[in-house]
Design goal:
about 450 residues, mainly alpha, Growth Hormone, Chain: A, 20 helices, about 80% helix, globular
Length: about 450
């Protein structure tokens, strides 16, 4: 019996949830260092620049992982890269827990960063390539939901081990938890049908489609994918075409917007920010951070519910507007003394809520959608490298900026960048809601302006 158009395929949902668990790795790494840093400073007295290097060392590894594995994902498949990611993350977590010098800890976090760089582009690709266009936004949003769950998990882990011996070691070593969960789940999945078709494994792709797609659509879907793949000559497979510049430019621009509006200064340094705002002890700052993590997790459901209903760009406009207001409010809170600490908490909560329902999931959804199939692995890798490069610059410079310019001016800079981001989204970002990946690529190829998709 054929499935009807309205049928929700349970197998597809289970596959998407499993693949999205890659976000747990990224989220856990982002969140765990924020609490661990408070106690690492009790083991080694680090300067602001050294603290910045400790936090951003994982980002250095992420650039390496993203750059090296774009081609590998196209060559060996999405599934194998996800398996390798989980294994590397387990190794890096053990190394962090056993680190005996700050240098060894930094090197261990670079290893973890390689895994984060790999998963940050291959998981969204996997999700976008298995998802029907009508629910693609929802399924790809699961990655960001898992990322926020990883951040929240890391905050809870930080609180659990805060008052124990070897506290920061247990915090960092606990990264094995999401890695083992991901590894266990991905072993039971197939690769994506689009990648299988690109390798002429048509029969295997049909079997995957039968499990995740409507039966009557399989031949049409395969034909469309084959037509997209055959639209280029063999020479063009390794040749960058002029029309491919625009989707890569938009993808890199979205990564700039996502990172340079300040999100990772909030995620990585939330306890530090709350200390600066007036929370005197580490435990109080960690509790406040857990509250932020809960908001981050819950507000991601807004994007899951409405990305395919209202569209991507309306959510971006709403989220950026909320972030803009909260950044300037946070900047002003530092001038209010004791009273300002609650304004700081409120500003951070609004900022995180706005980001979680917009830039967090939407940027990854759109980057996974807009890249041409022939170069999708390479293009997603390029966008992800840009993401981590921007991340590295922002995170490394944050504490020195606070020391050099002060708290209020530092967050005002992120507010100004948010204003520029609104203009970028309006003029350069296309609406991709309800459009097939093949139609999106055709629009780029035919030079359709982004605002007229």
């Amino acid at each position: 019996m054929q499935k009807t158009a309205g049928t929700v395929n349970l197998t597809l949902i289970l596959v998407a949830i499993t693949a999205s668990l890659g976000g747990l790795l990224s989220g856990f790494d982002m969140g765990v260092i924020s609490g661990a840093l408070l106690y690492i400073n009790e083991t080694w007295q680090l300067t602001p620049l050294e603290q910045g290097w400790l936090v951003s060392s994982a980002i250095v590894g992420s650039v390496i992982g993203a750059a090296a594995n774009g081609v590998l994902a196209d060559l060996y498949g999405r599934k194998k890269i996800i398996i390798a990611t989980a294994l590397i993350f387990i190794i890096g977590s053990v190394m962090c827990g056993l680190a005996h010098t700050a240098g060894w800890l930094i090197f261990s976090r670079i290893i973890i960063g390689i895994a984060v760089g790999m998963i940050s582009f291959v998981a969204p690709i996997y999700l976008s390539e298995i998802a029907p266009e009508k629910i693609r936004g929802t399924l790809v949003s699961l990655y960001q939901l898992a990322l926020t769950a990883g951040i929240l998990l890391s905050y809870l882990i930080n609180r659990i081990f805060a008052n124990t011996d070897y506290n920061w070691r247990w915090m960092l070593a606990s990264g094995m938890i999401p890695a083992v969960i991901l590894l266990t789940g991905i072993l039971f999945l197939h690769d994506t049908p689009r990648w299988l078709i690109s390798k002429n494994k048509i029969d295997e792709a049909k079997e995957v489609f039968k499990k995740i797609s409507r039966v009557e659509d399989i031949d049409r879907q395969i034909a469309e994918i084959q037509a997209t793949l055959s639209s280029s000559t063999s020479k063009e497979k390794i040749t960058f075409r002029k029309w491919m510049f625009m989707p890569i430019f938009v993808g890199v621009g979205l990564m700039f917007v996502q990172i340079c509006t300040g999100i990772n200064t909030i995620i990585y340094y939330t306890p530090t920010i709350f200390n600066l705002a007036g929370f005197a002890d580490n435990i109080s700052a960690i509790y406040a951070t857990i509250g932020v993590g809960v908001v981050n997790f819950l507000m991601t459901f807004v994007a899951i519910a409405y990305a395919d209903k209202f569209g991507r760009k309306p959510l971006l406009y709403i989220g950026l507007s909320g972030m803009l207001v909260s950044l300037f409010a946070l900047s002003g809170s530092f001038a209010l003394g004791e009273t300002g600490k609650w304004l700081a908490v409120g500003s951070v909560v609004v900022y995180i809520a706005s980001f979680a329902m917009s830039l967090g999931p939407i940027c990854w959804i759109m980057v996974s959608e807009i890249m041409p199939l022939k170069i999708r692995g390479f293009a997603m890798s390029a966008a992800t490298v840009a993401n981590f490069a921007f991340n590295f610059i922002v995170v490394l410079s944050f504490l020195p900026m606070l020391e050099a310019f002060g708290k209020a001016p530092t967050f005002s800079v992120f507010g100004l960048i948010t204003i520029l981001s609104l203009f970028f989204v309006y003029f350069f970002v296309p609406e991709t809601k309800g459009i097939s990946l093949e139609k999106i690529e055709d629009n780029w190829h035919n030079h359709v302006p982004p605002r007229k998709f």
